[in-house]
Amino acid sequence: MKTIEVKALSKTYGSILAVDRVGFTLEAGEILAVAGPDGAGKTSLFRSICGLVDFDGGEVRVAGLDVRTDFDAVKPLLGYMPEVFSLYPDLSVEENLAFYAGLFGLGGDAFRTRRERLYDFSGLRPFAKRRAEALSGGMKQKLALSCSLIHDPTVLVLDEPTTGVDPLSRKQFWDILAEIRAGGASILLSTPYMDEVGRADRAVFMDRGRFLARGTPADLVGLYNGKVFEAPVEVTGEQLRALRAGGTTAARVGATLRVYAARGADAGAVAAELGRAGVDAAGLRERQPGLEDVFVHLMGRRPEPPNGESPEEGMGGGGER
Amino acid sequence: MRSTYYIARKEVRHILRDPRSLMIAILMPILMTLLYGYAINLEVKDIKIAVLDYDNTRESRELASRFYNSGYFIKPDAAPTLSDPEMLLRRSEAAAVLTIRPGFAEALGEGSRFEVGLLLDGADANTANAASSYAEIVLRKMLVDRLPPGFDPPGVELSQQVLYNPDLKSSHFFVLGLIAVILMLVSALLTSLTIAREKEVGTLEQLLTAPVRPHEIVLGKIIPYIGLAGLDGLLVWSFAVFHFGVPVNGSMALLSAFAVIFIVAALSIGILVSTLVSTQQVAMLVTLTLTMMPSVLLSGFAFEIKNMPRVLRIVTLIVPARYFIVIIRSIMLKGAGLATLWPQAAGLLAIAFVLITLASTRFKIKVG
Hints:
Largest interface: A-B, 35 and 27 residues
Mean pLDDT of chain A: 85
Number of helices of chain A: 12
Oligomer: heterodimer
Shape of chain B: elongated
Helix content of chain B: 55-70%
Distance between the termini of chain A: 31 Å
Strand content of chain A: 25-35%
Strand order of the largest sheet of chain A: 6-7-8-3-9-10
Low-confidence stretches of chain A: 303-321
Number of strands of chain B: 5
Largest sheet of chain B: 5 strands, mixed
Mean pLDDT of chain B: 83
Number of helices of chain B: 14
Distance between the termini of chain B: 26 Å
Shape of chain A: elongated
Order of helices and strands of chain B: HHEHEHEHEHEHHHHHHHH
Number of strands of chain A: 14
Helix content of chain A: 25-40%
Low-confidence stretches of chain B: none
Radius of gyration of chain A: 22 Å
Structural class of chain A: alpha/beta
């Protein structure tokens, strides 16, 4: 069953095209991750799906219902967690939960039962009386997730739920997501972390309002058909420009330099390229391409402006080009 | 209605936990009332009166000395100029100028009609009022004293001219008008801030994904603030009655009912403002401008509406304070009821209805 169905969705802010004829589906019991840099259009996409903004073109269906015309029926099915913490800082954990429970028609015993389950999930029980503003980043995110789960939605839309959260909390958060999915709900989320993309059932890479590639994490890794070399060296911006001027695809990843080369390339040729740009090639070695490499590589080859091809082709073909 | 209850409950918690709203709600009215309390001088004694005696007779000198010996009046420090008697008033060196034209003694002796001039500084309405009635008493006393019992006093009258504030609005008038101004200001501020804060903090984004209708949010926000603003009204009203001695001549139940309608109108204005702005600072600025100026200038609070140019008179029709000021003054001072106040009641109700409808429909369930 398709829980979210997006067709040729476009959203503009003035002259800025935030989402450009994007389409995808989310199946029941599935986690779909959207990865992309800031300004890729992820938040605009999610807000459009959740009816928070009017979009300009296309169609969004949640559980088969059109969000433009049947929004009242969609709301109870949808749980949304915005990118920025959006609960009331001066209300306690429990009061925030009670407030949203009330809005979704959950009062009295029904609320208490649900609340206890969410406390089990999130581990927030000891902090029930604490004001939201006094929670740590990780706990805030768990509270926000709990509030978006309060009405037991069938679709969860989470906008960068783990950004800025410590690694342990991130892991706990994903354990909760796994439980939610096991309960039959489907989850659409955005994330800047490639390890999280790897934990999703399917993922899309998004940039400048368009989908560059999509598939299972394994599919996405497979999209990269060259070799990746890595050197433990911190290059300067000047060196990077020199490399690129010389026709080498390279990027800084953490404290290393990665070079994306053709399938037939060998380490010697790459080391020579580095040397020409004045980069120390000592310690250069080939590495197994990962999601991150695909992502960085795709970002390096930003898409051409759309020229009338159908959205499906435009997005599906992004990875194969 | 269920959602309205939950939003109202949440709003009450915000109010109780937010020092800023509480300050606006409680401290500002107290401060404003006190400021006005000191600005309006209620104690009237030792009124400075200058006497211009053109008659220069024994009788005219007696009248002047009777004024200064009455206990109400004293001599100003500066002597009046014959060519420009108003100068003392302009410089606030005297509150009144008594002019005795030639012929005063003659008129007294003949019992013919005569006018003694009294020029009053209306800027200080309270003092001018008092000076007028005291002068009347002093003059009447002299006329009666000079006659054997049983004779009617001669036709000497006081001819008064009030400068600067011809309507002689009293402090009662001002204080009651002030209640309207404060209620309008505080109510509109409170609601405009509460929604602007939801936008600023980002809580609106989460709230709007819940199955809540705009009018439920608007009502849930308005209801708790009716209570808070009502408390404010009571606070300022108490100041008016117990501190300024404003009489309570009419039905307080009727006044309370009108106050609630007025507050709803003011709260709706705040919500309308909040739909246009996205930060609390701008909300505060816009609300202050939008409520303070019309409520003070175009409501009959500071200036009589009937003296305004036609265009402004028409504009006053959409100022809610215009109606409430007439209502509260009429009820408190004259004990008026619905029989005389129905036009104002109708005007206020219509405005409140239009504003709350606008607020509910303009309040959108989108973030950007």
